[in-house]
Structures are given as structure tokens and as C-alpha cells.
Amino acid sequence: MKNNETVLLGHGSGGRLSHDLIHNLFVRYFRNDILLIQGDSAVLPVIHGTICLTTDSFVVDPIFFPGGNIGNLAIAGTVNDLAVSGAKPEYLSAAFILEEGFPMSDLEEIVKTMAEEASKAGVFIVTGDTKVVERGKCDKLFINTSGVGSLLPDSEGIIAGKNIKIGDKIIINGFIGDHGMAVMSARNNLQINSPVESDCACLNGLISDALQFKSAIKFMRDATRGGLGTVLAELCHHKPFGINLLEEAVPVRENVRGMCELLGFDPLYVANEGKVVMVVAAESANSILHIMQQHPLGKESAIIGEIMEHHAGKTWLLTSIGGKRIVDMPAGEQLPRIC
Amino acid sequence: MKNNETVLLGHGSGGRLSHDLIHNLFVRYFRNDILLIQGDSAVLPVIHGTICLTTDSFVVDPIFFPGGNIGNLAIAGTVNDLAVSGAKPEYLSAAFILEEGFPMSDLEEIVKTMAEEASKAGVFIVTGDTKVVERGKCDKLFINTSGVGSLLPDSEGIIAGKNIKIGDKIIINGFIGDHGMAVMSARNNLQINSPVESDCACLNGLISDALQFKSAIKFMRDATRGGLGTVLAELCHHKPFGINLLEEAVPVRENVRGMCELLGFDPLYVANEGKVVMVVAAESANSILHIMQQHPLGKESAIIGEIMEHHAGKTWLLTSIGGKRIVDMPAGEQLPRIC
After folding, report:
1. Residue B1's pLDDT band (boundaries 50, 70, 90)?
2. Complex-level ipTM
3. Which residues of B touch A226 (CB under 8 A)?
4. Which pTM was predicted?
5. What are the pLDDT digits (tens) for A225-284?
């Protein structure tokens, strides 16, 4: 790519410019045998067992932020949606909506990041699409990734959380709020002494380790938009159990806590892009915690609460000063375009 | 939905507004057992055989046009990408990027159209995503649909067109250019005596009929962006054969021809959303044509050309006045945002 090149409307035309962009950029970085066939669909090698399908569009603003960019976010988001469903992420599609005039060098940087993240996670980008809209009709670029994975044997119950019982423990794999505050600091160009980096990461390796205790894992969800608080509020919504959450046990970095206080956010509702919340059987909680702590993405894993009989349908936070308050689903939007 | 409601940033937050939108709109219209589980991924019933995956984002402007809207376009586009690959379209994802302030009644109309089109095509929308961006940061709404289908037995060769031979015939299932001119007339608010309607339609039924002659079908592609001309130019690009296209045989409606002349477009490059181009063995061409003509979406099917030995890598158009010209891939963009 030449330095001065930008995206033209013709790159989305389906004609020669589209053809060149596909060959010189997407196929070059995403290169794999399935993608190379370039039919209207990708023909996947036989997948054994039950298949999971997921989709996510990414509109994060800004597109580059400390710890990543929209590219690895788009890979991690979809990989994680499959992994928390108890599936092995295998194949991804990548669809780009580009604004006319977008710098080709930025696009290349993002595509390169996507390729690296996909390779780390062991998934293949096998099909794609590119549309270009006129200047001012979208904000730089939006990416959709959809993903196909194979459900691991005996994982059917995890998605719906059907086997959750009173006394089950809640685990998270580390610090909350990093992604949201990293994007906020980039968005507002904040000068911070100890800058926050996004936790954006593919969790399929960590989750695969934890799934050695598959029968003890009742539910998993990645705490993205809406944060940990929304996951827990949703988890017990209309259910015959409540959740007890211990504020002291929830890992929050000092700089994230500081930024949240400064800007008026509650870390419980700030987005993460590399955090999985698990509900696990009490008797296996410590073993699962231990195995997660051995993984680079789970060093700070912690048991942060439990499923309780009282207050069915509600999540209660026990604050560090001994208070109690309900963790509700937020009505509106704390941080638009965080992912 | 109340008439005065509009999309708010909070509808993309992952919180309560998102939750309500999903339940009251998407789940209500797309309703099926798989979607209702609402995990991070959809768990699909066992699919036998090889799986195909495809993705497409839709950014058509305007979003409502004669003969359809962005909703049925998003379903037909992805269904057709699977069908022309020799796959049975089965499950779709639907991801929405919405502009803050977009009328909820328009969104409902579009979602309703998607549900109807999916039902007609016999596919299920099993998972989705909604993002909202601030006013002015996207143009009303963009939709991504990704799709999973099962490759029909003995269809492996169709995607790559590996079995194409000299003498094979080229078939199209009817009039070209309808979609492009319908969108153009809506975009420019043209007052035309005989208005053009988009040909937007799911072709899986028609293609399934034609596949009774599966061994004779060498290649299929839906002629969308870039039109029939681009499909043919791409088909023989770097191949050891050329294509002979007979202008007189290519079906073009009078009003489409008129609009193209008026506006300076070549119908060969105008987008279709319900047209499949097939390369078939000469000896079965008439039988396939006959069976296609029995289908409501194939009444005007025609043999429009053939694979030739000369001029390898090029498509030649024999014009109705006896001239000859090369049909090349268009460099730039004839009609931005046609799909």
C-alpha cells in the first residue's frame, strides 16, 4: 500500500478496484486455503458435532486505542462469544464498511492486527465483504465478524445456564473496566500518569483450560458492553435465585478506579473485552480458580460472589464499607461506541 | 412500537433498552426456538455434510425502494450467496448498525420484511447484534447478514467452476438491471411512466429446481454489484477460455434500457438482486432452461452466450448491430451503495 492511498468508492464496487483490494490486502494477510477459493461462500472442512453461529458488529470510537484497535477487538469479540458458549471457535467471516477517504495505511494496520489475533486464537478468516460509503456517511470504518464453532461435547447446558444451583460460585478472570477506560482515555486524549490498556484478548485458550472441569461449569459469559454488572443482573433476571457480589473481591486496577471516580463511572458497568464471568459448582471453584490462574489471561482470577436463595431475580452488591445495594441493568448508555 | 419512538444510543448499550429492543422487536418477528435461547451464540441443530459460510453488509441508499427495502435485500443477498455455491441456505445472523434518531417504525417495517423474506426462503434468523452510533455517524442503518448452509452432495465443483469446458452455455434467469435502476429512480425521485421494481428475491428455490441437473451445472453466481458484465469478466479472468455473449439474447426490460440510456449506464454493469448466472453443459442447456422457466423467478430465463476457445481470459459481446467489444471489469464505481 502506498502511503498516500485512501479508500475510494470504487473499492466497494465489485469491479477491478474491489478485486485488487481483496487480493492485495485481505487475501494477503488472511491467507488460507479456504479463503483462496473465493467463491460466494466459504466451503468449510467437515465440522464434527453441533455447530454454533454468532455475529457482532464493531463501531468502537476511536478505532485505535491503548492495547489494541478495532481489528483485534473484532476478532476477540466473536471468538469469545463462541468460547463462552462452550464451543471451539473455528472459522470467521469479516465484513468491512469503509468511509470514502479512509487511509489505506490504517486499513492495512487493522487488517494486519486481525490476522495476528486470528492466528493467536487458532481461527481462520474464510470469507468477507467490503462496502464503501461516501465521506460522512459512516465513521471511518465498521467491522462485522461472524463466527462458526463446534460445540464441545457435553457443553449444551452452559449457554442457557440451566444447571445453576444455590451456592454456586462466581469467578472472573481478572481486572474489570480496563477496556472501557482505555477507550475513554483515547477518546478524550486524557493524560494519565499510569495509562490504562484495553484487556482485549481471545479467551478461548483460557476457557479451554477451565473446561477440564466441564461438569462443574454451569454458565459463562464475556462481560463486554454493560460490564460485569449487566451480566450478573441479566443472569438472575426472572430466575429463582439471587446473586451475592462482594465488592472487595472484584479486581479493579487502581488507575481504572481513579479514572472511574474522576469521570463518574461505576466500574461494574464499564466494558471489558477479555473478561469471562463463570458460574461454577462450589466444590470445584478452587480447582477451577487455580487452573485459570496458571494462564497468562487468568493470573488475577478471583471468586467474586455466589448464587443465593434470597432476593430471587436480583444481584446484591456487598460494598467494602459494609453496605448493600442492588446491581440493576443500566437503563441507558454509559459509554456509547465502546465496542 | 409507538409512532414517535426513535432509536436511542441506549438501544445499543447492552443494558435494559437493548434488552427491550431485542425482545419487543427482533425476537418478536424472527421468533424461532434457536433464537429464543439467546446465548452469546446460536446452537444449531446438527447439519449433515459440508458447511458453507458467507457474509454481506448492506448499505443501500435509499433504504426503501420500489420492490423492496434493505431488509429483504439483506436476506436475499446472503441466501443467494449460499445457493449459488451449491448449498442449501439454512441459518442466518442479522447484525444492525443504527443511527441515533432512526424512526422505530421504519426499523419495525424493515425487520418485518426480513422475517417475511426469511420465511419464504425457508431460513431461520438465529442470532444477532445491535449497535447504535451517534447522529451523523452512519447513514440511517446498515445491516450485516451472515449465513450458514449445507453443501448439497456432489456440488463441490460448482463454487470454483472447475469443470467449465469449451462449448458450455451461459444461462441467466431473466431481465438484468432492474435492481440498480429501481434504486436509482428512488434515489433521484425520478418520475417515470413505467416504474422499475427491484428484482430482489431469494433464488434458492429456483436453483434447487435447476440442480436436478446438477452434474451439468458447472458454475453459478448471483450478478449483484457490478452486474452481469463483471461476473462474466471475472469468470474468465486468467482462465484458458473466453466468453461469447450475445447482446440480443440478454433480457433487458424496455424501461430499464430507457433509463440506462437516459442516465448513461450500461445495463451489463447494473446491479441485480435476483439474478443467477449459470454455466451449464451444452447438451443439458435446454432442459435446464425449461425447468427454470417453470419457476416464477425464472420465467424469462435465457441462454445468453457460451464458453469459447478463442480470446482466452476475455468476454466478448456480440452487439445487436453486428459489432464486437470486450466486456471488461469496470475499474471504478458506476452506482455506489446499490446494495
Report:
1. low
2. 0.95
3. 13-15, 18
4. 0.96
5. 999 999 999 999 999 999 999 999 999 999 999 999 999 999 999 999 999 999 999 999
Scanning the structure block, which residue is given the C-alpha cell 475499474? Answer: B331
Domain ranges of chain B: 9-151, 169-327
**With contacts defined as CB-CB under 8 Å, which chain A residues touch B149?**
41
C-alpha torsion sign, points A111, A116, A120, A122: positive
Residue A144 to residue B41, Cβ atoms within 8 A: no
Better pLDDT: B332 or B324: B324
Please tell me the CATH code under which domain B169-327 is placed.
Answer: 3.90.650.10
pLDDT in tens, B8-61: 999 998 888 998 999 999 999 999 999 988 888 999 988 888 999 999 999 999
Binary contact (B56, A12; C-beta < 8 A): no
Q: Which residues pair with B307 in a beta bridge?
A: B243
Phi, psi of A327 (to 5 degrees): -95, 105
**Do residue A230 and residue B14 have CB atoms under 8 angstroms apart?**
yes
Contact assessment for residue A168 and residue A43, using Cβ atoms and an 8 Å cutoff: no
Nearest CA in chain B to A86: B41
Confidence label for A334 from pLDDT (cuts 50, 70 and 90): confident
Lookup: cell for A67: 492495547
Q: Phi then psi for A179, rounded to 5 degrees?
A: -65, -50
Would you state the CATH architecture of domain B9-151? 2-Layer Sandwich (3.30)
H or E element, residue B204: helix B204-210
d(CA B183, CA A89): 38
Q: What is the pLDDT of residues A161-173, one digit of tens each?
A: 889 999 999 999 9
CA distance B312 to A115: 35
Q: Which of residues 110-139 of B touch A (CB under 8 A)?
A: 126-129, 131-134, 136-139
The H-assigned helical ranges of B2-103 are 16-21, 27-30, 33-37, 70-83
Does B142 contact A at CB distance below 8 Å?
yes
Order of strands across the sheet with A169-172? A217-222, A276-280, A169-172, A302-308, A242-246, A315-318, A324-326
Work out the angle between the directed axes of helices A70-83 and A104-121 (0-180°, nearest 10). Answer: 30
pLDDT tens digits for range A114-162: 999 999 999 999 999 999 999 999 999 999 999 999 999 888 888 888 8
Q: Are B77 and B224 in contact (CB under 8 A)?
A: yes
Residue A4, pLDDT score: 67
